[in-house]
Amino acid sequence: xxxxxxxxxxxxxxxxxxxxxxxxxxxxxxxxxxxxxxxxxxxxxxxxxxxxxxxxxxxxxxxxxxxxxxxxxxxxxxxxxxxxxxxxxxxxxxxxxxxxxxxxxxxxxxxxxxxxxxxxxxxxxxxxxxxxxxxxxxxxxxxxxxxxxxxxxxxxxxxxxxxxxxxxxxxxxxxxxxxxxxxxxxxxxxxxxxxxxxxxxxxxxxxxxxxxxxxxxxxxxxxxxxxxxxxxxxxxxxxxxxxxxxxxxxxxxxxxxxxxxxxxxxxxxxxxxxxxxxxxxxxxxxxxxxxxxxxxxxxxxxxxxxxxxxxxxxxxxxxxxxxxxxxxxxxxxxxxxxxxxxxxxxxxxxxxxxxxxxxxxxxxxxxxxxxxxxxxxxxxxxxxxxxxxxxxxxxxxxxxxxxxxxxxxxxxxxxxxxxxxxxxxxxxxxxxxxxxxxxxxxxxxxxxxxxxxxxxxxxxxxxxxxxxxxxxxxxxxxxxxxxxxxxxxxxxxxxxxxxxxxxxxxxxxxxxxxxxxxxxxxxxxxxxxxxxxxxxxxxxxxxxxxxxxxxxxxxxxxx
Amino acid sequence: xxxxxxxxxxxxxxxxxxxxxxxxxxxxxxxxxxxxxxxxxxxxxxxxxxxxxxxxxxxxxxxxxxxxxxxxxxxxxxxxxxxxxxxxxxxxxxxxxxxxxxxxxxxxxxxxxxxxxxxxxxxxxxxxxxxxxxxxxxxxxxxxxxxxxxxxxxxxxxxxxxxxxxxxxxxxxxxxxxxxxxxxxxxxxxxxxxxxxxxxxxxxxxxxxxxxxxxxxxxxxxxxxxxxxxxxxxxxxxxxxxxxxxxxxxxxxxxxxxxxxxxxxxxxxxxxxxxxxxxxxxxxxxxxxxxxxxxxxxxxxxxxxxxxxxxxxxxxxxxxxxxxxxxxxxxxxxxxxxxxxxxxxxxxxxxxxxxxxxxxxxxxxxxxxxx
Lengths: 559, 371
Fold this sequence. Notes:
The structure holds 2 protein chains of 2 kinds.
Chain A: H1 7-11, H2 16-26, E1 34-41, E2 49-56, E3 61-65, H3 72-79, E4 87-92, E5 95-97, H4 102-107, E6 110-113, H5 125-130, H6 134-137, H7 141-153, H8 169-182, E7 187-191, H9 199-214, E8 218-223, H10 226-232, E9 235-240, E10 243-248, H11 255-263, E11 281-293, E12 299-311, E13 315-319, H12 326-334, E14 341-346, E15 349-350, H13 356-361, E16 364-367, H14 371-375, H15 382-387, E17 397-398, E18 401-402, H16 404-417, H17 434-446, E19 452-456, H18 464-479, E20 483-487, H19 491-497, E21 500-505, E22 508-513, H20 520-527, E23 533-534
Chain B: H1 2-33, H2 40-48, H3 52-77, H4 85-102, H5 107-136, H6 140-158, E1 188-189, E2 195-196, H7 199-216, H8 218-228, H9 230-236, H10 240-257, H11 260-267, H12 278-288, H13 293-309, H14 322-359, H15 361-370
Antiparallel strand pairs in B: 1-2
Helix pairs in contact in B: 1-14, 3-7, 3-10, 3-12, 3-13, 4-5, 4-6, 4-10, 4-12, 5-6, 5-10, 7-8, 8-9, 12-13
């Protein structure tokens, strides 16, 4: 939950007047574009929708907000025909409908832009757009003309012949939007569209959305970033625990009020007040270099000249658009890939070539960015997951022999102390919700008293309650001298939790900032490569800027 | 918690039961469709199995199959499909027979030498696939299938009299020469009904060892973790490449043992008539037994029963290939029913977790407020 009611989020509202203007124009179109009534959906294991009622006016941006797991996505899947509601009615333009498949929804002019883009990287924009819609305008000149027409009409700025793999995240998103419009959508569902964008790109997206609604299209915007919603939405509906708990007027509502509606309580803040930074270095990385070979044989530097020191009790935050070397940095620190140059030392010992297991035994804790791929055995019971990564350590084993009894007992302790909500420790990790899986991982890593913790997106996809607990756990350990490398896409989390901030861009640490004074916008512009050095001051500090390539070279960002 | 355990047991049994019932039903359908009485052959097979000498045959066959299936199961637990068990088993049996016939040592040492040679040969043959997979990313499915073919050709060549083979006088068979009696594994005599190979018990003991290593050692945990999720295991500190090679080597070594009950207990030589296809049957058995030592035992017993009890069906005017059809159908039914049961299990568990959490929902809200 990035949108802690923070001053910066509210401070850039220059676009507000134009929004109001459009509202007036569009406010008077009777049958609502979408009317959901009494929607109920029961599911095994996940929060169901119950008795949801939403009315979306034509030609407006309607925001649907709620914390992770509140049921927003399920609701949108129902509207898009991917799920059938158990009860309730859907009316489009005043006409009652029943969708069996997404094709039915598309036929009624509903289009969905998924959170994870569904584009073929090795095809051009044109090919991606016509793929599956060949019957509409063919695949040749007519299709191209239509694409350009749509692109111009809504200010999307799409180049039909660009290869998708060369595009950045924001461009890919515009292609997704265009794909939906190409299929004749009049109602667009955007599922967390800003999750992958930096603040500047978010503003550009919002300009696009305003164009769309000026042309009479309707946008349903799913998010939990409250500051953004207040900027772009005409109406707001809040969902909590699977049901609609209220609506709000963005002209008068504050993020604080929305947050309270959303979670039924005040949002936790990642803010860390007192500093616990010591002068004892715990992790030292100097001149770390890593190269990778592309499938076509080109050798590329994915990490270059990485230099940093994390002291005991310090949280070093790394900001950056995904795919700029964060994953590779973590893998090098964990020993999952062998760096081509540079030295990594932990607590004074050189660990550059030490294997992963020894590093873990030596006190590195790891909260992976993708917990399903790197943090859990999904089909194994919780107590086996508690062993994972620490199989050689107490209490999991003694002299090569596992001690399931002790591991089970300790799993029960973690479940209790970290409030992992589960009926028992024999259930598989897959049956827990994302937040509870994450709490189990955090509990596991903290149980071995790490000296240094790698926390990659520690609260991604985690509900508000769990988020606060995870932050508390990190803060607590930090007070006791833990050094933390925090990597997150959530700028508020980064700024709030970190003692020092660095920005990674195309495999280099290009800028640094003081979290006490930096704003998400400044950080955002450094993330796109627009700003370098010590942010807020002259651009001559952190001397990594030997490659002064223009920010528009997209091949790295597109990865 | 007790309840979940009971569920787990029921779910665990549901797969095999569902598979066997549907395999038998499908066999009945096949028999009916070809105008054969579907009940009579099965009745005859069961009757057959009531004779003690057939039972001894079944037990002996079970031991061989058990080892082959363990070899396959070790691969499966690591997410490796060692189709090459058959080649590893034949090459190991042949070369260990050659070594066994060439030397004479005091009893236990002689046997130990033969067993060690068999394990090393099996491990060597599977190790080729292991190295190819670890170093070059070659699919072990492809390489082990090809190594099977190479093993066949290699054995045929090695068995020529001008190489290692011996042609007994007045026979067309080729053998590796006879192993001296000091290299025979002691057997349990069942009187008139024959004898149970002593190595059969070694096989079952290995089942216990297999369980212990997989479930109670760090190495076993690493192996299972790698099989469940290579990426997670790697992040946890497992060297995945080393693990691929190690598990391939172990799998091959066990595959090498699969020939020992027959070699040390019965034939005492490797000849052209040494049983083939044991490794492939092992795949069926490992699948049916869910890679669990007890499950594999019962699966091996069942398949051995089908093999041995069907042998005399011909005398009664039924094709003994009925058993082959049944084995084939079991494989298909096993794959389908296990997947069905697995999905059902996951859904059921999620439902349970959901229910449990919904029940405690109100209390948790308070907690969130506090946070």
